[in-house]
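Reviewers of the previous submission asked for a worked example of the structure-prediction workflow described in the proposal, so we include one complete record here. The input consisted solely of the amino acid sequence. No template or homolog information was supplied to the procedure at any stage.
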Amino acid sequence: MAIDLGVVLTVLLVVGFLAQWLAWRMRLPAILFLLLIGIALGPATGLFNPDKALGAFLFPTVSLAVALILFEGSLTLRFSELRGIGRSVRGLVSYGAVLALLMLAAAAHWIAGLRWEVAFLFGALTCVTGPTVITPMLRTLRPDARIASALRWEGIILDPLGALFAVLVFEAIVSHQQGHSLAVFGATVGIGAAIGMVVAAGLAVLLYRQMIPEYLQAYGTLIAVLGAFTLSNQLAHESGLVAVTLMGITLGNVRRIHIDHIMDFKEHLSTLLVSLLFVVLAARLHWPLPPGMLMAGILVFLVAQFLIRPFTVLVGTVGGGMTWRERALVGYVSPRGIVAASVSSLFALRLGELGVAGAGALVPLVFILIIATVVLQSATARPLARWLGVAAPDPTGVLIYGSDEVARGIATALVEQGFQVIVADDDWDGISKARMGGLSTFYGNPTSQHAELNLDLTGIGRLLAMSVRREMNSLACMHYRAEFGRERVYRLRVLAPEESGNRAAFAGSLRSRALFGNDMTHTRFSELLAAGWRIKANALTVAFDWPAFVAQHGADTVLLFGIEPGGKLRVASNRRRTEPRSGWTVIALVPPAAAEAAPAHAPV
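From that input alone, the workflow returned the following structure tokens.
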């Protein structure tokens, strides 16, 4: 009995969502669960046969999905950011990556018996990590700031560059297999590059001149990507992947255009495509594997994990200022991700059609390496970091959602007391003022997929949701409960309890601690600042304790934070009464007369 294609796609999307949700709950890369579920549905049980279920739609679907994934990944590469990374990262993403490619290719050739051209393709696919696997792992690993920065930047930069490496190697294999000359290979790459950059430039002009309305810009970009991919393939066979990769890099580096909303759309689309694609690709694996393939894959993984990665990190970080302990942990952590899985499957399909020997072994080897690195490193990297003494202490930093005068004033007061603070918002005016005030910022919605990949939360352990949007504050609190814990998430009320009433009140699951007590609202805080109230910090002593502070500054003084002698931050809220003691430093909102009598921390 034939199963309706619509039913198949619906079930795949539901399964993909469940895998993504499970990954979020367990703080592990989603690719691990997607691949395992695909293997369980396909080769393990035989419940799902993608070739039979999707038929002629399989190859076009995989091709277009991979094209969009590569474009979305390549959008994140900013050449301007390359100047801001350290010497260690530059070494890892340049000669370190090339060395890893060559050594992985040699391992695949001598251990798994792949032909050299397929082995080089394997090396190009697996020499990179990516933000989709590194970011969840860093949140569990919690290394010191220098390690986290090196691993994060390596993933961000190598993700699109690795895709470009792999595409170029693939084009060379196809050109050689079809008997084409080096000139034909160059023409194929040149046509793809030209189409990608021309389409990107044209799209940038349309966006800059506002010739496409904002609500159609994401849709128009999607059409441009698919159009460039298809046109390039029609003009030069197999050149479409070059086109979309360079199109993303080009568009991502054009100045004076804002593509954040386009990136948000592409990230959501990419999440959907990845969820669908990897279940399908994993279900296509044949079980049992060819004789010796499983053992060869395990041996390649062991060599990659314990020989190639440490050696390339050792070479790539020479002169970078990292200690041997930091280099040891960086040399241990290198999970493979989306580019390796998606592109290897597409290339295997195409090379199989061309009759390239050994193409069938490419996907099993890549999948074994992905699953093994993610499982091993997720389970053991944190204990290793502690043993090496490079695990970060309990995070004391603060993420503030909101960038208006109230949020900036609180952020400035905390920074002046030595706390790490990130101000996050999608209001460009507020973020600009925060940056001018010397605050660390993140421009964008802190609950978005873009924030998942690009918001570095190393050292951050609390959320203060202080935006003027009530629903977004509650959404941010729910989002970061899993990250920080329920007791470390606070929101500044937008409406007082008597104003919101029972009809407008949030359900219990959406509630969180009310910042600075039930009586304080964002509107009231803003009005007090406008009336001359200021945020003031003061150290308490036995002679000048909290009652004396209140007596000096007025009974209306509002306690905001207390800082214990060891540096622990106490946040005033409606759930726990904070009683400052001798030796603490207090941050309070004081009336105008008190503010004039002593220096204050004025909002920026």
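The longest strand covers residues 460-465. We consider this example representative of the routine output the project will generate in years two and three.
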